[in-house]
Amino acid sequence: MTEPMSNSAPTHFPLFEDGPFARLQAAVRLAGIEQRHVRRRLIFAVLATWVTLAVLAAVQGRAIGPSWRESMLLDVGMYARYLVALPLLILTTPGCRRKLQVIVPHFLDAELVKELERESFLATIATILRWRDSVIAAVVLVALAVAGAVTFGAVSVAELPDSWRVAGTAGNRSLSLAGWWLAVVCEPLYKIVMLQLLYRLVLWWRFLWKASRLDLQLNAAHPDGAGGLGFLGMVLPAFRRPVFAIAASAAGALANLILWKGASFANFQYAIAAFAVGLVALMAGPLVFFKRQLDHTKQRAMLVCGALAGRQLRAFEDKWLGASRPATEEMLRAPDFSAIVDFNPTVVTIQKMNTLLLSVRQLVPLAVAALLPFLPVAALEIPLKEILLQVLKLVK
Prior knowledge:
Blueprint: H1 20-27, H2 35-59, H3 76-109, H4 115-132, H5 135-159, E1 166-167, E2 174-175, H6 177-212, H7 240-261, H8 269-284, H9 291-320, H10 329-333, H11 335-351, H12 360-371, H13 374-378, H14 384-395
Antiparallel strand pairs: 1-2
Helix pairs in contact: 2-3, 2-6, 3-6, 3-7, 4-6, 5-6, 7-12, 8-12, 9-11
């Protein structure tokens, strides 16, 4: 349930908690934010997907077959999807929850939201949480997951007749036991977890968009160098897991193309680069929403400080640097001189203020997480030593 909120106290933002799917998990005793509950979900996910697939494939003699394609235990995509991607997606929830518990209330704790805008800010949070709890949205996500699974099963029969996923003779082929489990249980489960994450990311984008439209109390001289909004970048490390998970699933599928159909990794290098850029943009993109307001804050502060510095310097010159007054030790000890010296760092801080809440230092780890799963895939064609040498050249 959505927690009650007060107009007089900061509220926490449980975007990655609760919702229709959490209530369904509670019915089977898998819900909860404690570590033991997360472990239960991880164990359940692995047992319900990869382990069951391996057992069903073994029952029909498809665990190890005469080729990569006919061997479930040699299916790289299954390892990547259900032993890497799915567990990481499940672990994403507690990581994001902890970050948002700190980040969202800070808007109020740091008094970035003006009193007149407070009600609007809290109303935005309430709306986002209602959308999080939307049964209609959950039904749509399930429908998309089921549609994807049906398509997956049909493609498996039509395009992969000699794989472990298909049983029967020519002209009378259908999904094997493992193939049915993959289409009916594994794929819907994976897609629901993935789509739920993407849906909550959409809500996060919506929240930041609405927050960026408020008249925030920003300070161009703030020590974080971002007007007081530098704390928003704290969420990016929590997004490394889902980035790696999504990339791992895609890398596993690409590995199967190379091993099963002889596709060339080189033909996909630009698609992989675009894919990585898209993942980084998905996670970091909404921070760009604040650029307009940060630009305005910096420009206004530079004008104000410029005018103040001009008045201060003119007054200092009139008092101490007149034509008939030589410079003395007394001038260096004067409060006027100290005031000028103390004011200069503030001006420098304003000039260096970042109006884009993104830096190379923040984006590089996300990009690495998006590209790293493809390194073993590239090693199927290119010697690993050569790959590492090329990476080192790029770094230098």
